[in-house]
């Protein structure tokens, strides 16, 4: 492995410690699994909100979530360590957002236990994946946060959120579920570059 | 570091009323108003969709240059528990604003207190007439003495649920019930299908079941007023056990 700062691509001349290799594979597999779950969550979510959510071409305004946006187009061009740091940060911010969506959906769709459970699971799984990515980064000598930077604050919830219109809440939840899928998928892609021998 | 907040920017226009609750069959007057600070914005070309379906243009009209009005009549019940999605669109189809409509059933009456407390035994309530089908009833008990009052949990039931679940679950090979023509039933059972037949339970386990006094009364009424052979409490217990098992399997 090339240990220059920011460069983590697997080097066939260096053998990974078995446990680190296993951890990377495990984390990558988790990300792959959660990508599928995120797709299912999105399907379940749009079904419960009713049409036009889920209809082809449905395109609500892109909402601004201060503190979290989707992976930037420039993400793929960043060094792998930086990409993984951004992945970990996003995964760390998502649980609070997913919890907020779950609480609102508990009011809007109280008789949709599967959706509510999926949102609860997604929050827990995002937290787990984020922690696993940070563990991998730490093991590789690339800390999740660079020196001098402050810990990222999780997006706080506006007290006005509960008073937001139902339609806005539905759109916001859609946005959060979409972000969750984008980031777990992005994480899976980034981790695949670390898996020794490539991804099967 | 300042708090980071969840914020929304669906603010080009606003629909009024926001998230109204309405009765089935009622009408709705709504407006979509574009915010004054939106440059060049006009209500010209705006249109409405309800649950993704574009509404006929004749239902809407311009109130002024920035407001499009909508008139809906004879509303159907909401398609989903989270409300019907009424959306105001710009000419290019983009979403400007939304409002969720909750269209529900009418409350058929006020609270009634029991009139027959002893007909089927002590501490009982007998409701011999004026029960409506396809209607959820809320039943509870209030007890008062010189020391104070207490109120039970609320039981919600539909008198037709038993027959519907039997048939929907397919547990017994049972022909649906039809009213006897020689009795003056307070209401008619609108269940299609052949008359007569025998209910053959397909097996199952007896269940301890909940308090079943009201169901016993209903079964008694059915035997008297409708052609339903082989109805029994044993059949009901078997159905309950099957339902509980199905519910557990679904939740796993």
TrEMBL record, chain A:
The keyword Lyase does not apply. Belongs to the IL-6 superfamily. It comes from the Eukaryota. Induces cardiac myocyte hypertrophy in vitro. Binds to and activates the ILST/gp130 receptor. The keyword Cell wall biogenesis/degradation does not apply. InterPro entries: 4_helix_cytokine-like_core, PRF/CT. It is found in: Secreted. This is Cardiotrophin-1. Keywords: Cytokine, Secreted. GO terms for biological process: cell surface receptor signaling pathway; nervous system development. GO terms for cellular component: extracellular space. One of its GO terms (molecular function) is cytokine activity.
From TrEMBL, chain B:
It comes from the Eukaryota. Coiled coil: none annotated. Keywords: Immunoglobulin domain. Residues 189-209 are annotated as: Disordered. This is Ig-like domain-containing protein.
């Amino acid at each position: 492995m090339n240990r220059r700062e920011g460069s983590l691509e697997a080097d066939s001349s260096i053998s990974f410690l078995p446990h680190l290799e296993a951890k990377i594979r495990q984390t990558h597999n988790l990300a792959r699994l959660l990508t599928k779950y995120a797709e299912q969550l999105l399907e379940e979510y749009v079904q419960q909100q009713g049409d036009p959510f889920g209809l082809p071409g449905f395109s609500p305004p892109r909402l601004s979530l201060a503190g979290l946006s989707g992976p930037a187009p420039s993400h793929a061009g960043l060094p792998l360590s930086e990409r993984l740091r951004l992945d970990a940060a996003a995964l760390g911010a998502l649980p609070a957002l997913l919890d907020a969506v779950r609480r609102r959906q508990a009011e809007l769709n109280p008789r949709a236990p599967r959706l509510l459970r999926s949102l609860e699971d997604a929050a827990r799984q995002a937290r787990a994946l984020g922690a696993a990515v940070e563990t991998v980064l730490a093991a590789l000598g690339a800390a999740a946060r660079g020196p001098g930077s402050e810990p990222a604050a999780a997006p706080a919830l506006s007290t006005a959120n509960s008073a937001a219109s139902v339609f806005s809440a539905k759109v916001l939840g859609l946005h959060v579920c979409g972000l969750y899928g984008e980031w777990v998928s992005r994480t899976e892609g980034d981790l695949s570059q670390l898996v020794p021998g490539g991804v099967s | 570091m300042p708090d980071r907040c969840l914020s929304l920017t669906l603010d080009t226009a606003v629909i009024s009323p926001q998230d109204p609750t309405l009765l089935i069959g009622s009408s709705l007057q709504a407006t979509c108003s574009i915010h004054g600070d939106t440059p060049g914005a006009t209500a010209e070309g705006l249109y409405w969709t309800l649950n993704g379906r574009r509404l006929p243009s004749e239902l809407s009209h311009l109130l002024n240059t920035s407001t499009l009005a909508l008139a809906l009549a004879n509303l159907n019940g909401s398609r989903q528990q989270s409300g019907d999605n009424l959306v105001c669109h710009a000419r290019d189809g983009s979403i400007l604003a939304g409002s969720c409509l909750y269209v529900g059933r009418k409350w058929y009456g006020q609270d009634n207190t029991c009139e027959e407390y002893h007909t089927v035994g002590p501490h009982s309530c007998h409701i011999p007439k004026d029960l409506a089908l396809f209607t959820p009833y809320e039943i509870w008990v209030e007890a008062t003495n010189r020391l104070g009052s207490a109120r039970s949990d609320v039981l919600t039931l539909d008198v037709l649920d038993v027959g519907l679940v039997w048939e929907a679950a397919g547990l017994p090979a049972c022909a649906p019930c039809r009213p006897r023509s020689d009795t003056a039933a307070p209401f008619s059972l609108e269940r299609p299908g052949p008359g007569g037949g025998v209910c053959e339970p397909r097996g199952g386990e007896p269940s301890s079941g909940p308090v079943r006094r009201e169901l016993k009364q209903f079964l008694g009424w059915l035997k008297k007023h409708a052609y339903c052979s082989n109805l029994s409490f044993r059949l009901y217990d078997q159905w309950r056990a099957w339902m509980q098992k199905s519910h557990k399997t679904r939740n796993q």
